[in-house]
Amino acid sequence: MANNENVFIYGHFIIAQHERDNAGTTFARANILLNPGASSPASTASSSRELAHLKSTVGGMAWLRRQADGLRSIGELLNKTIGETYTYYIRLDDNAGADRTATFLGNVTSQVQKVCNDLASHPALSKARAINAIGFSQGGQFLRGYIERCNKPRVANFVTFGSQHNGISEFQQCATTDWLCRNWETLLKGNTWTNFVQSRLVPAQYYRDPEDLEKYLDSSNFLADINNERKVKNSSYKENLKTLDKFAMYMFTEDTTVVPKESAYFSEVNTTSETVTKIRDRDMYQEDWIGLRWLDERGRLDFRLAEGGHMQLTTELLEDCFREYFKS
Questions:
Q1: Catalytic (active-site) positions
Q2: Phi, then psi, of 198 in degrees rounded to 5
């Protein structure tokens, strides 16, 4: 990855692993780079005992432009920045094509549960004391769903880039050549709150119109639940998020893909007046529905800016992130 080259990333999950034991001894470490949808190769670390002492870094993506080169570039940059790192990419299907489709078609609740099961049964990650997580775009709120609902293994440091934590109030226009999206676009926009769409079309499951919260609260399959917005709260979501050592949220300054871009900070934007209500002024913070206030009052909640459009990740930006949040 050349300095300041933009890398465009979409979707779900990546994982990386790295650490020493308490005595400071450096273990043999694996460095595994997978294309989404590929089968997991066997770990090259010397023993399962060594992996049990590793601390991990987890991140989120399912598909990116220049897929293999982009994944390899980020993995190599992670190694260069914080040291040799075991990297594992979560996929939602063993078939690459089906894995890409799962970024648009699928039940997010079921997808998150699959990730929970996969991490809990992974021979290395399941034994790790903690893992660090980085989520790109929609992968951020999906990984947050993992933390709130499962968190085994526990996430220590959690970073999101351009994620839709407070949902989207507009659906992104389908690209002319994106036939998968175009085939479902009318149904997505015209039948958002039906059970059929909420259980099958991924963007609908984090759609949130502040001017029509009643339908959202009644029908949202995913976001209304993990944001604890309904009358009956799930206390375990808050308790799990409170176990984070750090939660850093990056918002892209020129993001026109995510509407509103301030969703990256849990902010709410009135769709008529465009008035922005920041997270600290919202009920979900004041009443601490998911633990954000608790984290903030202890200096564990960071609001960061990334220059440019959605998922325009420069080498400098990623290096700074890796050093600040993932380097021991």
A1: 137, 255, 310
A2: -65, -20
> Which residue, 166, 159, 133, 146, is CA-closest to 264?
166
**Model confidence at 7, in pLDDT bands (50, 70, 90)?**
very low
* Closest alpha carbon to 146 in 102, 46, 138: 138
Which range (3-12, 65-74, 111-120, 181-190) has the least confidence? 3-12
**Which range among 9-13, 67-71, 300-304 shows the weakest confidence by mean pLDDT?**
9-13
Among the listed residues 163, 7, 136, the one whose alpha carbon sits nearest the alpha carbon of residue 74? 7
Q: State both tokens at 61.
A: 């993506």
Consecutive H or E run containing 17: strand 13-17
- Give, in order, the Cα–Cα distances in Å from 16 to each of 124, 164, 178, 248, 302: 11, 23, 30, 18, 22
Q: Which residue has the higher pLDDT, 85 or 183?
A: 183
Reading the block at residue 53, the tokens are 């002492």
Q: Is 39 helix (H, G, I), strand (E, B) or coil?
A: coil
Measure Cα distances from 190 to 186, 194, 197, 204, 277 in Å: 6, 9, 10, 11, 28
Average pLDDT, the chain: 79
Buried b or exposed e, range 100-133, using 16+ CB within 10 angstroms = bbbbbebbbbebbebbbebbeebebbebbebbbb
Express as a percent the part of the chain with pLDDT over 70. 75
Tell me what pLDDT residue 174 has. Answer: 80
Give Cβ neighbours of residue 34 (< 8 Å, ≥ 6 apart). 40, 41, 71, 87, 88, 89, 91
pTM: 0.81
Quick check: 139 and 163 in contact, CB under 8 A?
yes
